[in-house]
Sequence to fold (166 residues):
Amino acid sequence: MATTETAQPRGTRRWVRVLLFVSLALNLMVVGLAAGMIWRGLPDHREAPQSRDQTMPYTRALERDDQRALRRQLREAFAGAPRDRGDLARAYRRSVELLRAEPFDPDALRANLDAQSRNAQARLTTGQKVLADYLATMSPSQRAAYADRLEQEITRFEARAHPLRD
Fold:
């Protein structure tokens, strides 16, 4: 009985699947971090050092009241945006379906991952705009104090990023 093989060697096909799975995992991590920030609120910059949220020095440098105010503004900004967890879950499940499909269609998976990336980027851009607009409402002395705290957060971030460097 003859089998039909694709022109692609089997080893290359596995390599592409692994690469796509890694890409999917990274995209899911980014979307998960963004979703977690929205659903649970911004982190407290006074948290214990074991907190590994290295992506939030801007918000961790804010005073607690400023974090609350920014969180409210973020919720308002995202109120009209598609952020339904069901939509996110459907996009993830679509990736699972595509990974299991035979024959495997890497273009379809890429398109799904690209759509997830575009949604995550749109949310990030909105969040950055809200933060910049919020900081613009601060007085010069408030912004200077914020800049000092941000500098401290960046120093902590660098220390966590390179703990073995001298």
User: Anything to note?
Assistant: The chain has one domain: 12-42+53-161. Residues 53 and 76 are 24 Å apart (CA to CA).
